[in-house]
Design goal:
Structural class of chain A: alpha+beta
Order of helices and strands of chain A: EEEHEEEEHHEEHHEHEHEEEEEEEH
Oligomer: homotetramer
Distance between the termini of chain A: 29 Å
Largest sheet of chain A: 5 strands, antiparallel
Shape of chain A: globular
Largest interface: A-B, 105 and 105 residues
Radius of gyration of chain A: 21 Å
């Protein structure tokens, strides 16, 4: 299976950046779940390009639901989201039809598809394809929220500027979800935007780190082999374009710890087993322990930069240089944040439905 | 699907630490591939506990192949590896039947399986279950090697001591595969072992980082959604007990880079497109670009330590303390290294067979 | 996975009979395969209702491809087919919102989806959903044909009237594929249509049997367990609404044979191993033997009839009677025939790509 | 996935007829389910060859459980069943190493595996591999029975002799499950055995039909696309060697019915919706309706017969003749019956756990 992911809840993605439409099919949603089209639109707007820190390409990103919803609720059969492409200026991409952009999938797509790929705007490799995830994820996020499970992602780092880490997770998630530029420490926003603008001024781009937290997950979800919660989440997260690292809880910091620091001691508080620390990020032996799930994704800098780059001509294999024009984001980490929330919701909802047969835990 | 992973090539794991036997079923191997039982035994020995830095539990780890091999070659039908458990001292685990060990899966297993799990020695959550992966992986490693694809993992960091990074990957892999304690820089071995022994003396344990490289992968393997090479590798890697972070190429270091540093420029050398740098770790848009695949796994410290720890009694939920006895590893990163090689081989062989229908690229 | 089927080639179906649109996503098609929109339209017309023997509902069934095709060829990424619903007269279905139609899925859908299902026109259970299979199947049929593999289905029986069985399969398939009412023996058409009209005059409906043949399949495709060619074909065929029986080769007639009659002796003719008889329907041990694949599907009579029927009211569980109005087919076997061809093509193409990594055998 | 089948409950089969051992891994069983080794042994004995009507090869078929059971109950992790091969007389198979037996998989295996297959006794294609299904199925049957769901199969036809059809299904299943030769009408046994002995006397074999019923399945299980209950059951059933036809309810008899006869009217009796007739075999729109599930499997005559047959020599492709010796069954339909029960239990338990997250409906 390629463009489909999930078991009880599965999402199928389709579309190319400059084709007719992109979208998603969300299958397996239990019947009778309310579908709030306003919330979907709101989530779509969080993914949109905004202001000077984003690409000049502006898409309405209106989501049309063509199946699976009846009288405002899920029917239990596949929900199809269609998002038409409108602001496509394919003329910008002339040279890019044959010169592989460094950091992009142009070369690998050419090898894999033998030249038949839709190269315009990155085709099916475009970050634009994540719009389908956001639409489908909005339905999942609502369903989880109605069951007490909330998800939030902040920009932990962007262009070398750091936000504070999560503190009280339930409260912090509440701070994030309406923000266009999701940071916990308000002062981080201006500094990060300044770093983005500085890179933009240089015809360059910046990377960053997203940190996601999930509050309210029941304990006992996941498998020891091979579908650990880390496995299924990372599988989905690493398919978000530009994500090159995923770590849970203390993650790479575990490498420098001793077991006595690393282990999270258990404690019974009010008949609920909790841990004071949460180095394990809410997952032990691949299975949720009832504490918040916390993970971080490394996001590489947008590969489309305006500086001249060395590359090869795919038509004859010769070395050449490339000067990218067109409309591009000097940073994508702020736009990728809602994608992280959405894909996390889809994965966790799938895990819950696999475990309980329904969404009610 | 739970204990089965893969598409064209799939591995199923079974067994508990103190049960009769553990093992694996390897399905989908093309027919006619030589199976070298000596190489399997050699790989098993790399996973074994050795000397003072490992647990005192010594298992023969003899692998019995009960199906799928005929006249020394794969038949094309499932290959079953059985490894009997012998040196089980279940009497050591008395108290652990009801007190959850911090950092272990005891609590989460108890929630998930409602008390029916085989708690002895961690049961199905034990690192011992990885022996099945090593047996199956040995067959995959041989098959890949015969096709020019080699894999090696070194201990990049252990107990705060760092090995050098990969340099010339083809040569470096050659240095690693026979080593019991796999480091590139010989002097790192003693320092790491000293760090492990220091922790052991304190009744404590250490974590580390494994770095894996794959040389010889053809370009064009993987999918844009959702089965990116990063996705399928991380899915498998995160199911290795204690792995809590996975990053490809520059990974989390991408967060501080600009696009102009991050992008790997393409260059045609002798009619082969290469990149001078390899920040992307050999994967662009989820698809191999023909350069070495490079990734790192964060390994948390062994959770079994001899210091007293705070926990809860699973029988009545009351707070209590726990003093682990038994036989345990003060570090597992050196033993996990062959597991990383093995699971990487299984995943990549699956990708190759999915793409070409056979192992010959 | 629910509405998605296949491995290397997978199809996802969506839509409801009276919703905005129905369609399919076809994933995994190798890149560079020509897509002939005229052929798709022609296949769609074979599924359409025609004349007095079919429902009065007339749908344009225009297929819009919104992704995965570029410059007339497959890109290698998902192909999405959208078919808008136009001639929906939902007012006809008033009483059917709460009275379960015997032979239909109304009752079982109500149990499964708890009343949230889109009941209009059978919703997602409608035979109309097969239009997506026909669109996707057309692409698969073309690709197979270009590789020498042809598929044809005839109406072996309808309303008690029998067509002749397949004789020279290659020639017979050639006779069938342009026919609107696919029979091998021309005289069978009028008799079958007369049987349909007679049932219609009685407010009743008829069932039948479809017989499908595949010529040109290479030997060696399929698995002994569990993905025998019979298994994967029957899995797909039994999801066509109204199919209640599937048999391969001699099928149920095997029950009365002795081994000496049943076994197909092998014979080498011109360096190709053939069998004189083909009782096994081209499949031995779950694997193709290079002879034509032949199977039959039993199709139950259209459950929508105009006679009064006994049923229950889903709102209160009370016994009641039901008189179906609306527009319905007195037979569907002739319309299901192109669905059988299409789904067979999708399944076999998947098997070929799984085996060879591409479509070229 | 090849030798693994199922979603929430999955079974993996391994082994060859004359290898060291055969067996199965049963994954996904909920934890805490009692495992009755006596019942497993009893089911194994129903599959064994008995008396003059079966092969002279006698296997102890002792099932050793090496994982997944602790204190007599399932742990929730994979259950592995190992059955050693003992009575293997491979010397009987000399000529069969290179002459393809008509009706067997020798030729197709040779094409698929290029000569590396274990040809002895049919290798992985042997009916002997079904022993693993019977062992795993026994656990599933017990679990279903404890939840009020019972399954039974009778020999509807063998060698041209017919048993009566199911009447009162709950009672009839009770009549069948301890019988070694499962018929409903006692007089049918002798007649069928006589037909088998007559064929044996001629060096020939007979086929038959198995009819299976399931009582107690809840309504609302299954999917409209593609995992209809018919689809998943037929997928599994067609992987039983020798099954060449599967029909549900009226099956192929539907072809001659009119809708008014075919439709099963609904009726509320004691607040439960039932149907007086059960032509649909308990499945409407792919979903269970709460009535008994009823289906039939056509079983082809054992292909191993003692009459001389025409075939080809696989080593040089030349036409030759073959006289099979060795030990073979003149009929397998009576031995396949417990395999049908077992695989049905595995499939339906998977469906139930997928739907409810656990076995309790």
């Amino acid at each position: 299976m390629k463009n489909t992911f999930g078991n009880s809840i599965a999402v199928t993605l389709f579309g190319e950046s400059h084709g007719n439409a992109i979208g998603a099919v969300l299958d397996g949603m239990p019947a009778g779940i309310p579908v709030d089209e306003n919330f979907i639109a709101q989530q779509m707007s969080l993914r949109k390009s905004v202001g000077a820190i984003s690409t000049a390409r502006k898409e309405a990103d209106e989501v049309k639901i063509v199946s699976g919803v009846f009288n405002g609720k899920t029917t239990g059969t596949p929900i199809t989201f269609i998002i038409e492409n409108q602001d496509t200026r394919s003329r910008d991409y002339g040279e890019l039809a044959y010169k592989a952009r460094p950091g992009h999938a142009d070369l690998t797509a050419n090898v894999k598809y033998g030249g038949s790929q839709d190269f315009r705007g990155g085709g099916h490799f475009s970050g634009r394809i994540t719009a389908g995830i956001v639409a489908a994820g909005a339905v999942a996020l609502s369903a989880l929220k109605a069951n007490g499970i909330i998800i939030g992602t902040h920009i932990l780092s962007c262009g070398g500027v750091y936000d504070r880490e999560f503190d009280d997770i339930q409260t912090d998630i509440g701070l994030l979800n309406d923000k266009e530029f999701a940071v916990l420490e308000p002062s981080a926003e201006e500094k990060m935007k300044a770093a983005i603008m500085a890179a933009k001024a240089d015809g360059d781009s910046v990377g960053g780190i997203l940190e996601t937290a999930v509050y309210g997950m029941p304990a006992g979800i996941g498998e020891p082999w091979f579908d650990t919660v880390e496995s299924v989440l990372s599988h989905a997260l690493f398919s978000i374009p530009a994500v090159k690292g995923v770590e849970f809880g203390a993650g790479f910091r575990y490498a420098e710890m001793r077991g006595s620091q690393a282990n999270d001691p258990f404690r019974n508080v009010d008949n609920k087993v909790i841990t004071d620390t949460n180095n394990c990020g809410g997952i032990l032996g691949g299975i949720t322990n009832g504490m918040p799930i916390v993970f971080r994704c490394a996001v590489k800098p947008t590969p489309s930069i305006y500086k001249e780059q060395q590359t090869v001509d795919l038509t004859n294999g010769e070395n050449t240089t490339l000067q990218i024009k067109g409309r591009h984001d000097p940073a994508i980490v702020h736009r990728a944040r809602v994608v992280a929330d959405s894909i996390t919701a889809l994965v966790l909802l799938d895990q819950i439905v696999l475990r309980y047969g329904n969404i009610n835990k």
